[in-house]
């Protein structure tokens, strides 16, 4: 005969109280100690590099060169030497690059998330069956227009409209004869495959194209380049969130007379707020740290912070770690603020989604 189960806490021994959970869904005291100790150790491991960067930005050169010192006001006396060097001596260039990064990063993120979310929703809810031959025809005409523009010197303002007109005529005349069709999965894979392609492969054609239309070293040029480069990530991530929503909610709204755009704005986006916030933060980080496109498509007017940092490292002074730490603190501050703001929306969305009935 098995011993009776001890349900009451006062009937348990000390070891049972320590290692057995008091009720369902609650950890035992011993488990709490182990879990929170591991979380504390991991938090210190993650936060220490940021702490080290922050305190290094307030050190004098001799404090950095003589050895590791950890505690301000105890191991060393904080100084604003590095901050003055960056924000006062080179303040004009720093402020200009910082504002460029802020404007380009925010604008490209909003543009990318807005267009990408609508594209992902369309792929999740609307069935597309484009003919493979029509798509191939479009690619061939686009390549032909590009070759004519590059070799014969004809303006793109002429070649592109002509190629588009030819595509419309040929598609209407011969499109119905093509039998092979593509599906939403093929379109989605093609979109994400653009991100698999290394950017260095296409950076020269992008530069030549932007130079021909006058978008080199402009805010609009970098905004468009960043948005297009990160668009596949938004489509891929948001597609899973939209596909996981019950379609009955949208069908009920359609019965009440709601439009497709109204359903997307008033129902779908609020329900996918956690995914939208996480995707926005990821795209913002990618745009904020982008270097390759910025170094090719900007010179002075639209120079961003990563380009300024590279210029500082390539200067006569070489790498000054105390100044570099100031740059790192300045660069990570907006991302941390955005993460804190979006974390509130993520937590609120999770709690709202957990309430049913």
Count of DSSP-assigned helices? 16
| DSSP strand tally | 0
* SSE sequence, one letter per element: HHHHHHHHHHHHHHHH
Helix content: over 70%
Secondary-structure map:
Layout lengths: L13 H6 L9 H28 L4 H6 L14 H9 L1 H35 L6 H21 L3 H19 L9 H13 L2 H14 L6 H25 L3 H9 L4 H12 L1 H16 L3 H6 L7 H9 L7 H34 L3
Short key terms for the protein model shown above:
disordered C terminus
Plain-language structure description:
With 357 residues, this protein is an all-alpha fold. The chain starts with 13 loop residues before the first helix and ends with a helix. The relative contact order is 0.11. It is flat, with a radius of gyration of 28 Å. The protein contains 16 helices and no strands.
Offer a quick outline of the entry.
By secondary structure, the chain is mainly α.
């Amino acid at each position: 005969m098995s011993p009776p189960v001890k349900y009451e806490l006062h009937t348990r021994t000390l070891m049972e109280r320590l290692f057995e959970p008091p009720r369902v869904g609650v950890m035992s005291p011993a488990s709490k100690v182990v879990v929170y100790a591991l979380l504390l150790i991991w938090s210190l491991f993650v936060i220490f590099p940021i702490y080290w960067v922050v305190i290094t930005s307030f050190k004098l050169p001799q404090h950095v060169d003589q050895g590791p010192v950890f505690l301000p006001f105890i191991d060393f006396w904080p100084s604003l030497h590095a901050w003055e060097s960056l924000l006062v001596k080179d303040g004009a260039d720093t402020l200009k690059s910082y504002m460029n990064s802020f404007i380009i990063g925010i604008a490209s993120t909003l543009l990318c998330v807005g267009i990408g979310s609508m594209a992902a929703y369309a792929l999740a809810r609307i069935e597309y069956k484009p003919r493979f031959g029509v798509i191939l025809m479009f690619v061939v005409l686009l390549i032909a227009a590009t070759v004519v523009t590059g070799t014969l010197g004809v303006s793109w303002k002429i070649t592109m409209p002509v190629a588009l007109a030819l595509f419309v005529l040929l598609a209407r005349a011969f499109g119905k004869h093509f039998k092979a069709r593509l599906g939403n999965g093929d379109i989605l894979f093609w979109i994400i495959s653009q991100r698999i392609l290394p950017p260095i492969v296409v950076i020269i054609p992008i530069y030549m194209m932007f130079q021909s239309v006058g978008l080199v070293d402009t805010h609009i040029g970098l905004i468009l380049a960043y948005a297009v480069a990160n668009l596949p990530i938004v489509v891929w991530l948001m597609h899973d969130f939209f596909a996981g929503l019950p379609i009955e909610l949208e069908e009920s709204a359609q019965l009440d007379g709601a439009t497709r755009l109204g359903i997307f704005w008033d129902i779908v986006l609020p329900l996918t707020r956690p995914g939208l916030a996480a995707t926005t933060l990821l795209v913002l980080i990618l745009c904020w740290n982008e270097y390759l496109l910025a170094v090719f498509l900007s010179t002075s007017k639209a120079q961003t912070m990563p380009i300024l940092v590279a210029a500082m490292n390539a200067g006569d002074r070489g790498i000054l770690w105390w100044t570099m730490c100031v740059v790192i603190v300045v660069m990570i501050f907006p991302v941390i603020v955005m993460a804190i703001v979006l974390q509130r929306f993520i937590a609120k969305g999770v709690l709202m989604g957990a309430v049913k009935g």
